[in-house]
Design a protein that fits this description.
2 copies of one chain form a homodimer. Chain A is an alpha/beta fold. Chain A has helices at 3-11, 18-30, 38-45, 59-63, 66-79, 102-106, 123-131, 153-166, 199-210, 226-237, 251-263, 297-312; strands spanning 50-54, 85-89, 111-114, 135-138, 147-151, 172-176, 186-187, 217-220, 245-248, 273-278, 291-294, 319-322, 325-327. In chain A, the strands form 2 sheets. A 7-stranded mixed sheet of chain A has the order 7-8-6-9-10-11-13, with helices on both faces. A 6-stranded parallel sheet of chain A has the order 2-1-3-4-5-12, with helices on both faces. In chain A, helix 5 (66-79) crosses helix 12 (297-312), helix 8 (153-166) packs parallel to helix 9 (199-210) and helix 10 (226-237) crosses helix 11 (251-263). The first copy, chain A, is elongated. Chains A and B meet through helix 3, helix 4, helix 5, strand 2 and helix 6 of A and helix 3, helix 4, helix 5, strand 2 and helix 6 of B. The structure holds a DNA duplex (30 and 30 nucleotides).
Chain lengths: 339, 339
DNA sequence: GCGCCTGGTCGAATCGATTCGATCGCCTCT
DNA sequence: AGAGGCGATCGAATCGATTCGACCAGGCGC
């Protein structure tokens, strides 16, 4: 019997007599042949069925961030039914090592996803463009040949800031995500604003000024982690002219600030109001509920999946923006009348 | 010029004149050929360079577990230099859906890793055996044709229990990981012990009896999460004959029990001692430090990587067991003299 | 009874890179 | 000057599956 008949038997498609099919399957069992080799199929199809996902700077850090996890979960759920697998690609964490992970250069993948679209001059984008791999950029600056998925960061942060304004706050500080790959930590002077290279940080900061607020202090953190939020909170709440409200660019940072306030003996929200961004469940703040800008994380993952789908259907780069909504919790309240 | 020469030019190996090489590269640039197609190379080599990793039941749940994350991080760090990529494969979470993820059946991979080696009759093991894919089982029951990586669960738990005994505790309860795929929650009667199918749970429970202790109560949790630990703690600490010590099978569970104790107004360790397993940093318990059995998580990931390496070097299935050590913190103390 | 149609099977080309052996100049040694 | 040797290049086979067109035999209609 011929190889083509065998192929028909395994694929199931095409005209084949049931008897022949059974004969092929029996022979395969006798020769302990375990079905078609995926590599051959992939070469023929010209498709690997693999989506490379650059998760973040280092896996450990990314995976400690519930935001990444939930988006990734949504992405995998969308990709699964399409018979697509997710290949994990570490971002460039080691400045001494290669600028991009070798996997990004050599691994077989149909589409690449960059989960934290960094700066426009990201070497990863260059590498992917060179290879001609269609790319989905999440929370990055839109580029003509790259699909993008994002949320209304700017509008969301504007809404949160306006909420603080409506409560009478005037001394508002901001705790931000990293400004660029160097991931500094501490107060940012106004003349350092030009190296604000990370798009997501820029957009959320712009949202604050959109509301007509000039922050009394801007604190940069090296990553969205509770401990960095705590450090920021201790510092900002020890300032001589203490801010009455702190708008944070992530929920983890905000929860760190709340913990810092409690440590310093300050009441939330009576002495200081705190707002976040993301809309996570933060059980360790209980009974407090964080005031925050809720973004649809699972839907964001699904949107990335659909952007991938578009590419595989032969369409050009798509562009999606998801809405956010303000959730008012118990960590924001009227500004204290006496400072 | 010929394809073989072009291949030489790109691979760099083999004898080739610098001038020819440059000519090939120029021609490639002119035709915007972006380097060798990985699929062709993989087919020829007979290797995909991909390691499939089954992370756990559902991605969301697995990724909320710092233990999985840290092991995965160690694994990726080891696999990276070997030019191997990690393909994420969701475990079977939906009982209505297929028993194993289609990726496990069809994706190209050189080796598969099952991170939470479940039961011996795991359908995933069957699928992998049918395909002839070398498999590394983590924390599972050793099988002849499968490589295994594990720690001394039993000895570690025995040591922790002996520590409690030495403090004078006699009423010791146990909070366990799931017994089987059905993931029940609640007290386990003695006659239900036979459906204890999950190897890791069994081993850690055996460690307790090894120390000569019969737990006054065994509480099964559906997953290693703080909230499940809290539920367990509330229940166990409300029992009429309250246990004076609770040995938990994970740190997340233990921290939930500590939180529950605090909620109930019990002092730790004066009123109740709590021990964990894993050796995580748990900042939200501060200033308390959990007494726990420390396992080397990053090394575990590296050990999995080496097991993979062995397979690719053509060796048979290897077997590795890593040591654990007891870390005594502030959550265990002498048994209360008056109950 | 003959021709046509159709369901089933087979050959061969193709996807793209690698690699072994062969060939072809050219240089050097005698 | 002729022969041997070596470095560079090329042909062709191979990895394994898919798929299009060809082919063949049996059934049905006229």
């Amino acid at each position: 019997m011929s190889v083509s008949t065998a192929s028909l038997a395994f694929s199931g498609a095409g005209p084949i007599a049931a008897a022949t099919r059974q004969r092929v399957l029996d022979a395969a069992a006798a020769l302990d042949y375990s079905g078609p080799n995926p590599l051959g199929r992939q070469l023929r199809r010209g498709r690997s069925g693999i989506v490379g996902v650059v998760v973040g700077d280092s896996l450990r850090r990314s995976f400690r961030d519930p935001v990444s996890i939930q988006v990734l979960d949504g992405l995998v759920s969308t990709l699964g039914p399409l018979d697509l697998g997710v290949l994990l690609i570490p971002g460039s964490s080691d400045p001494a090592g290669p600028a991009v992970d070798p996997l990004l250069e050599t691994a077989a993948m149909d589409v690449a996803v960059i989960m934290w679209g960094g700066t426009t001059d990201d070497p990863m984008l260059g590498a992917l463009r060179r290879r001609g791999t269609p790319t989905v950029l999440v929370e990055g600056q839109p580029l003509p040949d790259v699909a993008s998925v994002g949320i209304d960061d700017r509008g969301g942060m504007r809404e949160a800031t306006e909420h603080l304004l409506s409560l009478g706050h005037t001394r508002i500080a901001s705790v931000t995500l990293p400004f660029d790959r160097s991931r500094g930590e501490g107060l940012v002077a106004l003349d350092q604003m030009d190296h604000l290279n990370w798009e997501i940080t820029r957009r959320r900061l712009t949202g604050v000024t959109d509301a007509g607020v000039t922050p009394v202090a801007i604190w940069e953190t090296p990553a969205s982690l509770v401990e960095h939020g705590r450090t920021a909170g201790i510092a900002l709440l020890s300032m001589p002219e203490r801010p009455t409200a702190i708008a944070c660019q992530s929920d983890l940072l905000a929860s760190g600030v709340v913990l810092a306030a409690r440590e310093l003996g300050l009441r939330v929200p009576e002495d200081v109001s705190v707002s976040g961004f993301d809309g996570l469940d933060l059980p360790w703040l209980a009974p407090d509920v964080l005031t925050t800008v809720v973004q649809p994380l699972a839907e964001k993952g699904a949107a990335i999946g659909h952007a991938v789908e578009d590419f595989l259907a032969g369409e050009g780069p798509s562009r999606r923006e998801l809405p956010v909504s303000l959730r008012i919790g118990t960590t924001t309240g009227p500004a204290p009348t006496v400072s």
